[in-house]
Amino acid sequence: MTRRRAIATFTSDEAGAVLVFWALALAVVLGIVALSFDFGRIAATQSELQAYADQVALAAAGELDGRSDSITRATNAAANLITDSQTFGNGAQALAGGVDYAIDFYDTLPAASDTASLAAGLTTVPEDAIYARVVMTPKTVAFSFGAAFFALTGNTPANNSVGATAVAGFTQYACDITPLMFCLPTPNYKADANIGDMILLRSGGNNAAWGPGDFGFLDPSKAKVDPNGPCGGLTGAQLDACLLGAQGSITQCFAQRGVDTEPGQKVGIEDASFNVRFDIYNAIMNGKKNDPAYAPAPNVIKGIVPSGGGACIGGNPQPSPDTLGLPRDTCFGAGTCGSGGRYGDGDWSVGRTAYVAANYGGTDPHPGASTRYEYYLAEIAAAGGGASTTAILSGLAETGRPQCSSYQSIDPDRRVVVAAAVNCDPNAGGTQINGQTNNVPVEEFFRMFLTEPVGTDGLSPPTLDLWVEVVGSAGGAGSGTGGSGGVFHDVVQLYR
Q1: Distance (Å, rounded) from C-alpha 114 to C-alpha 111?
Q2: Which of these, 63, 280, 68, lies nearest to 168 by C-alpha position?
Q3: 290 with 438, same domain?
Q4: Which structural domain, as residue segments, surrounds residue 190?
């Protein structure tokens, strides 16, 4: 009886029941906390891998400039510029290419979906590569508590393998530049290595393949023109003339990776548009002398004067009786210049002597100026700068300052143009140019000084000659530089 009563009392006694539920609940809570710890380590590892993949892809994409070694440079940049370590998965360890990630390159991305396969755009051609994809090698994050939980519950273990993928691309835009391109003598001809050398740029034809020194124009329909600038709202020949001759906020932007060249020549536009810089207003530019957007440079010494007197040069100027324009490299007169007589060597010493004798009576006022561009700048500075109207030359047929235009640009670089340098030799990894050609890679953007007015040979259609001196690189080789005569924007971004 006593035992039966004890059992009945025990079974009906509710004291301490809550403790049992607390024990069970505590076990569940501790299990969830333990799993949260493990899943948190998985999430943290995935974040680390994704951040690393993003940075590697961006570093690689920044080298995809369309050149023949771009994939090699991109692969090296990915391996050498970005260092990181993965902390949680299998313990701390450094991350490195070849083991922890694979990298490949693409010329296109699918437009329909961010999750669509990239396979169609895969490329191994450096000139075509635009995008870099980095795929991380999956990492296994060991469960500290989860293994025991899944074993006790009999559930399937959760996926503890994590990875990451990133896709980045590169584009460079050149803005506020002259829509001009020319063919290099060799792919490795660099602006900064040839400062002071003269180039004879001659208009290329529509049929024969273009060679070193031939020049053409970039398609203005691909330009992004500032609607509030001097070229805003213009079309056709007027737009072409403005893009070639105006100053101010023009903001036409061209992608370095693939510029489009225009077919044919701009007859009646090219020479007139360039020559407003020299205080010459002819053809389509007739009537622009009172427009500040077409103001000439602060130094317009050119060795020619109006025929019959007056302030403005008409269609038939005559040689100045007592002044000379800046001379050409000596090798042009001797017929010894390189690349078919189109690329000089920077030696203008013979012509310099004649220039000083005619314009300064034989005593060189600027002996420290080694290039023609430096001499031109020294002449401006000696006369009070670009904002001054003080004569550069005294008692001669030319003062050196504008006489025809009502305005004068204060920018000495008004006679500097920025042009796209192109490798036109298909046998050296370049693009054959025959007038209109699309997606032509730009090797570099050159800053070039116009040493004399642009002339034609008088034929129909005319051949134009631009005599220019290399000032240096304007950027456009992945440098993202800006300044007078051109602004370059490197755009490197993640796409996936």
Answers
A1: 8
A2: 63
A3: yes
A4: 176-490
